[in-house]
Design goal:
0% helix; mainly beta; 7-stranded mixed β-sheet
Length: 126
């Protein structure tokens, strides 16, 4: 069993940056592919970014490519999402996710996620 706890969300102006983090406990994340999803009010949860077990492969949604960077520190059992050039449409609850069987070079699928965090709110004002 893996417990995931996000932190580092908040309110930022358009064009600003945030760096949410996801701390895992219970098991090492080095055996899991890790990702981030987000869900805006009234919308379905959508894939944002994913990282393979050792961080060697990453994949991003087109909407965040070039602005967001996923990284991980397996020694600290933590995953990060560096978000830059934020836009109001990035406003959502951001969820950390662990997928034990992700196939790289494609988006993670929410229905295949093994463990979810509780989410952290990111609000971008215009």
């Amino acid at each position: 069993q893996v417990q995931l706890v996000e932190s580092g969300g908040g309110l930022v102006q358009a064009g600003g940056s945030l760096r949410p983090s996801c701390a895992a406990s219970g098991r090492t994340i080095s055996n899991a592919h890790m990702g981030w999803f987000r869900q805006a009010p009234g919308k379905e949860r959508e894939f944002v970014a994913a990282s393979s077990r050792n961080g060697g492969s990453t994949y991003y949604a087109d909407s965040v490519k070039g602005r967001f960077t996923i990284s991980r520190d397996n020694a600290k059992n933590t995953v990060y999402l560096q978000m830059s050039s934020l836009k109001p449409e990035d406003t959502a609850v951001y969820y950390c996710a662990a997928d034990l069987a992700w196939t790289t070079a494609q988006p993670m699928r929410a229905t295949w996620i093994d463990y979810w965090g509780q989410g952290t709110q990111v609000t971008v004002s215009s």
